[in-house]
Design goal:
The structure holds 2 protein chains of 2 kinds. By secondary structure, chain A is mainly α. Chain A has one domain. Chain A contains 8 helices and 2 strands, in the order H-H-H-H-H-H-H-E-E-H. Chain A has a two-stranded antiparallel ribbon. In chain A, helix 4 (72-94) packs across helix 6 (113-121). Chain B is α+β, with helices and mostly antiparallel strands. Chain B has one domain (61-236). In chain B, the strands form 2 sheets. In chain B, strands 2-1-3-4-5-6-7 form a 7-stranded antiparallel β-sheet. Classes of the chains: A mainly alpha, B alpha+beta. The interface between A and B is medium-sized, with 36 and 34 residues.
Amino acid sequence: MNPAPVSTWTEFTEGLWERNPVFVMVLGMCPTMAITTSAINSISMGLATTFVLTTSCLLISMLRHMIPKDVRIATYIVIIATFVTVVDYAIQAISLSMYEALGAYIQLIVANCLVLGRAEAHAARNPPWASAVNATGIGLGFTLGLTMIGAVREILGSGTLLGISLFGSHYQPWVVMILPPGGFFVMGLWLLLFSIVRKHRKSAADAVKEGCHGA
Amino acid sequence: MSTEKLSSASPGTEPGAEDTPTTPTFAMMRTLGIVSAICGMIIVGSYLVTLPAAKANRRIATERAVFKVLPEAKSINEYISLPGGVIESAKEGDLPPGAVKFYAAYDAGGKLSGIAAEGSAKGYAEAVRIMFGYKPECQCIVGIGVVSMRETPGIGDKIQVDKDFLANFESLDVKLNKELTALANKVETVRHGTKANPWQIDAITGATVTSRAVGKGINDAAQLLMPRLLPKLEKIKEKS
C-alpha cells in the first residue's frame, strides 16, 4: 500500500522541520495564538498535544483494519477525546496552576485539526510503530514551534524567560507582546524568517543539482 | 469537490462511496461499541489514578489562598452556610442550592483567627474571583488575594500588586446593621482619591473596571454570608 518504505528517522524528523505543524503546515493555530504568552505554557501545551497525538495515533493505527470508513471520523474523535480527557486529569494531578494557566485550551486539543489530520492522513494507513513515531515527531515539532513563539513573547512582554528575570527591574515590559496582537506579530516574523531560510536552501539545492547535471 | 481531490491524491484508500458495497450496520455498531468500551475504560482508569493527587492539589491551593489573606492561621476547616442560617461542615460534591462555602482559619492553639471566603464579579475579561480574609473582632476585611482572573496584563492585574489599592483591604469595614440582616454600609468602589469612609475602596486609575469587580465581589459575598455567619460564630470558635 505504501509507495516506498520510509525510514523511522525520516518519519520522526518530518514533523520537526519539513512539515513543522506551526511554521510549515500552519495547523492548530488556536492554541498557538492563545497560550503562547510564556515559554512554560508553550512547552506544557506542546507536550500535552504530543501525548494526545502519539497515543491516539497509536490506537487508531492498531484498530485501522476494523474501523469501517463510514464511521471512521466518529471513531477517531472518540479516541482523541479519550486521550484529551486523560491529559486533562493528568495536568490537574501534576499542577493546578498550570491547569488554570492553560484553561479551556486543554479540552480544545480535541478540536485541534492537527490531531485529526494526523489520524486521517497517517495513522489510518500506516502500521502502529510508524504512526506513533511520526506523531511524536509532529508533536515535538508543534512543541518547538509553540516554544519559539512563547519564548519571544515572554522575553519581550514580561522581560523574563521561564520565569527568570533577564533584564533587571528597570526593564519596561512590552505588554502588547503578551496580549493577543503580540501572538500575531511574533508568528508573522517567525513565518517570514522560515520562508526566507527555506527559499535560500531551495535555491542552494537547485544550484547543486544543476551543477551535477552539468558534470 | 474536496472529496474528489482527496481520493485522487490517495488512490485505494478513499474510494467514492457509490462504487463500494455499503458497510453492514452491524460492523459499524460493533466498531463504535468496542472503541467506546475501550475509551471508557481508559477514562475511568486515568480518573481513578489521578484523583488522589488532584484532590491534594486542590486542597493545597485552597490552604495557600486562605493563609495568604490570614497569615497567622495554621489550619483550616471548610464549612457551608445554608440559607436558614445553619452552618455545617462542607462535604464533597456540589453545594446545596443557596449555600455559601467559607473557610474558618485557626491559629496554632486551635482558636478561630479569622474567616476566609470567596467572592466573584465580572471584570474586564472574565469573572474576577478573589479570596478575602475577615476578622470577627473588628468585623472587617483584613486582606484579599486573587483566586483567578483574566484581566489585561499590566493594567487590570495591578490589583494584585498596587500598594495603594491593597491598602484598602487592611481594614475594610463590613459591619452588620443593628438587625443583623445586611451590611450597615454597602462596600463600594469609588474613584481614585475620593475614599472617605472605611467601607469604600479607592479604585486604581486606569483599572476602574477591575477595581469595581473586586468591590462588587466582596460586597455580594459579604452581604450573603455575614448575616448568616455572625450569630453562629460561637459554633466554630474552636477547631472541631
